[in-house]
Design goal:
5-stranded parallel β-sheet, 3-stranded antiparallel β-sheet, alpha/beta
Length: 567
Amino acid sequence: MTLCLSGIRGFPKLWKSNPYRGQVPSHSYLSLFFTNYHVIRNQQRWFSLKPISPQNTKVTDQLIAKNRSVKKGIEGSIKQVSHPPHLFAAGAAKKRSQTSAQNNDHASSPPRNTIQLPTKPLNSEEWDKLKEDFKGKANFENWISMQMAHSNSSIDVAKSFLAWVAAKNNGIVGYNLLVRYLHLCVFYKQTSEVIDIYEIMKARYKSLESGAYTLLIRGLMDSDRWRETLKLLEDLKKVMTPSVRNYNDCILGALLHQDVNVAWDLYEELLSHELIPMLETLKTFFDFGKDIKDDHYSNKLLGILLYLRNKQLYPGESFAHSIKTWFESGQCTGCGKTIESIHLSSEEYEFLKEKIMTDVIDGGDQYRKTTPQELKRFKNFVKSCPPFDIVIDGLNVAKMIPKARESQILLEVVSQLTKQNLQLLVLGRKHMLKQSSRWRKDEMEKVQKQASCFFADNISEDDPFLLYATLNSGNHCRFITKDLMRDHKACLSDAQTQRLFFKWQRGHQLAIRHIFQGSKITFQHIINYDTVVQTTGDSWHIPYDEDGVERYSYEIPTRWLCLHQET
C-alpha cells in the first residue's frame, strides 16, 4: 500500500505505509500553558469590573527602610530593606520566582547547537550538506525535527525537510517526524495540512499516542470535519482519560458549530472525571449564551458560577467581562427585568423583507445605479448559493485602514471569519480584480477561495445587493459595512417601516472595532435589546439623552431611567 505525498500540500514524493497496522511508539509531545487572571466583584447585585492596581507600598517601604538603616563610619550610609509582598497576594509567587532566577544566573547555559536551523526551504543536496556538518551524537533527522517543532519553523522549511527524508527512505517518514510536522501545522492553523496528516495516520496506524490525538483534535476542531474530534476523543478514552485540553477543544468545536447539547454533554463528562475545566472553556459557554434566551441554558451557566465558588476559581478579566455581558444581555442591570429584544418577530421580518424588495431593490430607489440585467444576474447567483451567515461590503471594509493595501485588509477579515466555519459572501466591484498597487491579484484569488464572491460593474451601487443577500439568507444572517444606509431607509414608504428597518439594522449590522494588519480583528458586540420606551406593568424603562451629548437621528441614547413600582 502506498500513500501519495501530494496529499500533504506541496509534497512531490510517495510515502509508503507499513504492511502492519500496529501501535505507535510511546511518545508524548504537546506542552500546555495556562495563564492566571484576577477580577473584583463589588457588593451590588450585578458585576462591576474595576482595574486592579498594585498595592501602593512605596511610602511604607521608605519608612521601614529608614527605621532599619544603619550608619557605617563617619560618612555613614543608609541600607534599605525591601518589603516583600504578602504571601497570598496576586503576583507574589512570580516575584519570588524572578528573585530565584536572578540568584541562579551562574547556572551553566545550555550547550550550543552544532548547526543553525535553515530559515528557507532546502533542496536535497543542501540537506545532505547540513547533515554532514552535524556533529551531534543524536540522530540528525530526529534532532532537526525536534528543533523545528521547538522553534516553530516555517511550514515550507519543514516540508522540504520531510520531502528529503522521504526520498532517502523509500517514501517512508517516521511517526515522530509526522507528529512534529503536525505540531507545526496546528500552530500555524494549516487546517488542510492537518487533514492530510490525519488521513495518513489513519491509514498507517491502528491507534496513536496522546500527543498526536491532542494535536489532531485541536487542528480539526474549527474545520467542517470537527465531529471527527469526538471520534478521536473516544479512541483516546480506550487507553487513558483525556486531558482537560482535549475536552476543551472538543467543546469549543461543538459550540463553534452550534451544537449546544454535545458541548454540555462533554462538559458533564469532564466533571465526572473530576477534572478542573479550563477557564477558556467556561468563558466560551458564557460568550455563546449571551444571544440565547433559554432558561435551561441560563441555569447551566448559573451552575458554572456556583462551580467557580465551590472550587475557589477566579475568572480572568476577559472571562469576567463575558459573565457581565451575559448578565446584562436583555436585562436591566438595575431591577433585573427583561428588556424587549432587538430581534424582529417572524411576521415583522417577512413584512420588512417584502417592503425592502418592493421599495428599495425593485422599486423607486433613486440612489440605485444598478441595471435590471445585473440585478437579475445577482438574484440568480444568490439563489444558486446556500444561505449566507455574513455578507461583506468588500470595498467598504477594504478601505478601513487608509494607507494599507486594500486587498490585504479584505483578505485578513475574510480569513478570520472563515476560521469560524461561516458561509460568507463578499460583494465588490470588477476593478478590485485588476492588479494594482491597492489590489493584488493573488490576495483576491485567496479571498475567492474562502468566500462566495460577486463583483458588480464599477458604476453599480453595492447596498441593494447587500440588503437583498442578507434578507434572503434568513434572520440569522448579518452584514458588515460602515455605511449607515440612511438613503435606503429614506426610500421606505412610511415611518413605521423605517423604524422597523432601523431596528433590523441595529440587530444585524456588524461593525469592526479594531483592525490592525497581521493581528486579530475584533467586532463590536451587537446589542440584543431594543432602545425604546417600554414597560412590563410594574416597571418602566426609558432611554434618555444625556445633557451635553449631541445625538444624531441615526444614533440611540445610551442612558436609561429604570422605574420600578414597589409592592
